[in-house]
Amino acid sequence: MKWFDNTSLTLVIIGAVNWLLIGIFRFDFVAFLFGNLTWLSRIIYTLVGLCGLYLISLYGRIGSMSD
């Protein structure tokens, strides 16, 4: 499962950088690469969102590591 954690974290970081670019420069990097709401960009947005939801479980795992 460690590979899935690392992959999820990487996708969420990419999503965070994309939101940073949107917030500062009004530049959507995913839309620039794959088109504005094409099926491929929608898949990428969905994967980033699902990985973000999955990483919520990280809070519980961090808490159980410190006990």
Automatic annotation (TrEMBL):
Provide this UniProt record's keywords sorted from A to Z.
Answer: Membrane, Transmembrane, Transmembrane helix
The record's section on Pfam families has:
DUF378
InterPro entries recorded: DUF378
Q: Where are the transmembrane segments?
A: 7-27, 39-59
| Keyword Membrane part of the UniProt annotation | yes
The record's listing under PANTHER family reads: MEMBRANE PROTEIN, MEMBRANE PROTEIN-RELATED
The name under which this protein is listed is DUF378 domain-containing protein
In which organism is this protein found? Dorea hominis
